[in-house]
Amino acid sequence: MDNHIAANETASNALTKQGKILDSIDQFYADDCVFTEPDGSKRSSKKDQRAHLEGFFASLKGFDGATLHGQAVGDDVSMSEWTFKMRGGNNEPIVWNEVLVRKWRGDKIIAESYYQR
Prior knowledge:
single chain, Nuclear Transport Factor 2, Chain: A, six-stranded mixed β-sheet, 117 residues, alpha+beta
């Protein structure tokens, strides 16, 4: 296990818990990071992912929190299990239960896949 990846995973997750997901992307993701959604659709750069999330966050009435249930780190890979609670444009509750799998190269995430649980 790479202790450097473990430290970066923990730091990235700490930003996410604070609702600073865009800050985490800016700090920990490679410019050419590939993001894969549960339906298999992909975004092939940090810039595209950031724009996607900026649009999504702008559509929300509120971000009510992110709960990290656990994380694990292996050889150039990390995983974290989350519950995200938000309020949509009509103030309807949005709850996402996800597992994020990240592949690392050095101190940057080069791929991230989302899985719904």
